[in-house]
Design goal:
The protein is mainly α. It has two domains: 149 residues, CBS-domain; 159 residues, Tetracycline Repressor, domain 2. The protein contains 14 helices and six strands. α12 runs antiparallel to α13. The longest helix has 31 residues. It is elongated, with a radius of gyration of 29 Å. The relative contact order is 0.09.
């Protein structure tokens, strides 16, 4: 927006709107205070329900939501909250202090917007009060305010899981060079990591030449390992994002994933053993057994790696979404091929 347009818009604002804008511009747009509106209903704890209802009727047009009425003291510190439902159900002569909820869930002005969205979702609130370090009320964040935040965060996570820079720009409005810039860094990183797989194949070159069937089933080993790893990492990332899983749960998570990995490995291993033995290209029993046993251990390893990596990355304070998708598949490819060739050496005595 040009300076002239900004100046024109600013001059046409009312004094109240200018004051409100200057107040909000003090805060970072990615924090709770950057999302909030300073328009909310607030009352004193000493007034009656009848007086409170009269105040609500007068201020109805000036606020964003009337679902909650906040109780403040003389210096704007948050003391409690009363829902409109509780207010209408109470006796007119009842004092607000006797019906208000004193254990108020609020967020600090510097709380990250993603955390604000998570709290609203967890508690099914329609609005959340924002306070400063002295518990003084600054404003409220409504559920409508965080819908865009949730959509933006989900878009960024999807991009990261697809090995792209996490940006929520609209596709049709994004330039060609920006799209290339968004994609190429991770493609180069994954390309370099992928070359490690060629080193693994080269290292076991004599083994592959002596048992050509190993080469035929390599794609199955890597693809199934990658798929199982991505399933685990997706479950972990979702659990971390919703707060259902924390790092302290790592023991329970790994125990469960060990059992799941073994069962998944046995299921896929038996299927590929039967498939490779009875259907073209028609491997002999020991070759089919080698592929089947290898897949059991590759799936087990991939399942554990897919579960463990997001937990560790999150523990380090980094974004676990980068560990899923292509990056996880690349890491599993390298380890999966190593497992595959080592088991082949063991079972076939090559």
């Amino acid at each position: 927006v040009s300076p002239d347009v900004r100046k024109s818009v600013w001059q046409n604002l009312s004094d109240e709107a200018k004051k409100e804008s200057l107040f909000l511009l003090r805060f970072d747009e990615d924090d709770a205070a950057g999302l909030m509106t300073p328009r909310y209903l607030a009352i004193r704890s000493s007034i009656t329900v009848s007086q409170a209802l009269q105040f609500v009727r007068k201020g109805l047009q000036e606020v964003e939501t009337v679902y909650y009425i906040y109780v403040l003291d003389q210096v704007q510190r948050l003391l409690g909250v009363v829902s409109l439902r509780d207010l209408l159900a109470a006796q007119d002569t009842a004092v607000i202090e006797s019906i208000m909820e004193k254990d108020v869930i609020s967020v600090l002005d510097k709380t990250d917007q993603e955390e604000v969205a998570k709290i609203l979702e967890t508690h099914d609130f329609l609005a959340l009060p924002v306070v400063d370090s002295f518990n003084r009320m600054l404003g409220i964040v409504t559920f409508d305010d965080v819908i865009d935040v949730i959509r933006e965060e989900q878009t960024e996570d999807v991009y990261k899981m697809g090995a792209m820079e996490g940006s929520a720009d609209k596709y049709l409005e994004t330039g060609i060079l920006k799209l290339v810039k968004k994609r190429i860094p991770w493609l180069i990183i994954l390309l370099i990591l992928g070359t490690v797989s060629t080193n693994i194949v080269h290292h076991y070159g004599n083994l592959v030449l002596g048992a050509a069937f190993l080469f035929i089933f390599m794609p199955i080993i890597t693809q199934t390992g990658g798929n199982s790893g991505n399933q685990s990492s997706t479950l972990m990332i979702r659990g971390l994002a919703t707060g259902q899983i924390e790092f302290r749960d790592i023991g329970r998570v790994m125990l469960k994933e060990v059992i799941v990995g073994i069962l998944l490995g046995l299921g896929t291993g038996i299927v590929i053993l039967l498939r490779s033995y009875f259907l073209p290209p028609g491997a002999d029993f020991m070759q089919a057994l080698t592929v089947g046993v290898s897949l059991v251990f590759v799936v087990l390893f991939s399942t554990l790696a897919g579960a463990l990596a997001p937990l560790l990355i999150h523990r380090l304070g980094l974004d676990p979404t980068v560990m899923s998708g292509p990056l996880m598949a690349t890491v599993i490819d390298v380890c999966g091929l190593t497992i595959y060739f080592e088991i082949a050496k063991l079972l076939l005595h090559l």
